[in-house]
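Morning!

This is the sequence you dropped in the shared folder:
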Amino acid sequence: MYIIGIAGGTGSGKTTVVKEIVNSLPEGSVAVIPQDSYYKDSSNVPVEERQFINFDHPDAFDWDLLVEQITMLREGKAIEQPTYSYITCTRQPEVVHVEPKDVIIIEGIMALVNPQLRELMDLKVFVDADADDRLIRLIRRDVIERGRTPETVISRYERIVKEMHWEFIEPTKKFADIIMPQGGHNTKAIKALQMSIGYFLK
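The structure's back. Tokens below.
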């Protein structure tokens, strides 16, 4: 089993990189574990207060569960991955059954923050991108997928996302084995990553 951590700022192109990797591997050989699925449940917080939760802080994640489930996969055990609603900010009753695969990809803004999680990874990747590009992608994603207004997204970026990026995400570059400039647009870096993973699977 080969466990890869793919981190990077919001809108850096992590999802694009992951899709390119998955598409290059044999069908059924990879499982993607989105870190976003492991946000702590906020159902105990009044609805009107949930908009003020800082989802870009390490404390927003259930690290114990994430580490536990990645450990289980490494040990060859299946997991029941939680699901999370960005609309209600709550963990959903539905779970996703995930079987151990040859390649496990952990993808998220803070995939390289937790030392225990890093220890479980065979390869650590940081997807980098200019702040302007990340903001544009963030606006597009949150407006289309999460029903937010551009004004709300920009306000949150200025109040929370930008500061949290520089405090918690950017510093994790030092833990990365590979740093990918230009995010998902760096086709040469993606190709090199695909080749290295393919070599492992031979």
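Headline: The mean pLDDT is 87.

More detail when I'm at my desk.
O.
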